[in-house]
Amino acid sequence: MVTRNIKIKGISQYGYSKFVEGQKTPKTKEQRMKNAFERVYRDEKGKLLIPGAQLKACLLHSALLNEYKIGKSKARAQELISALFQVKPGMIHVHNGHPLLDKDLIYNEAPTKVGQPPRQQMTMTGIYSLPEGWQCEFEVIVITNAIELDPLIEQLEFGGIICGIGGKRTWGWGRFEVFQSSKVR
């Protein structure tokens, strides 16, 4: 098992888009703000979080875009990364020199298509985001020597710039850079 401590810094806004069961399409700005507020990840003390699963998904998407292979197989690379690569903790505190809280969030609205054609409609949706400069620290673990960690860190770096994490990635949000990677054990 190989473990690395990774530190990343947001080079664009990070958009919160947690799924909330039963949320209906809001009609007023107040309802949109309330719904968006419920989609923010927080711990029990109100500190803001980012799911580690988003970082793993970013790595997988990057490896797919780069046609990353283990041996001669792209499919095997995806399977091995999915099975043997872990991000710890599962929910990662986000900071900017201090723990980030609700007061640090920015509210944004944009038109969004809802439904399927031919009944597709435009509606306004709200999303809370963190400003550029957010940071977080986490560990990545490869459970076996079947895959090397250094090339995966490179894929994560590429994914941070090209793919991003969180909501509104098509707007260019969620982009990050790896600014420190150090061996733990």
Short key terms for the protein model shown above:
single chain, 185 residues, alpha+beta, Alpha-Beta Plaits, six-stranded antiparallel β-sheet, three-stranded antiparallel β-sheet, 4 helices
Mean pLDDT: 90
Please report the number of helical segments.
4
Helix content: 25-40%
Could you give the distance between the termini?
Answer: 8 Å
Rg, Cα atoms, Å: 18 Å
Count of β-strands:
9
- Indicate the CATH class: Alpha Beta
The CATH topology is given as: Alpha-Beta Plaits
The helix/strand order is EEHEHHEEEEEHE
Number of domains in the coordinates?
1
Portion in beta strands: 25-35%
Structure explained in plain terms:
Helices cover about 25% and strands about 30% of the residues. The chain has about 180 residues and is an alpha+beta fold. The strands form 2 sheets. Strands 1, 3, 4, 5, 8 and 9 form a 6-stranded antiparallel beta sheet that branches. The mean pLDDT is about 90.
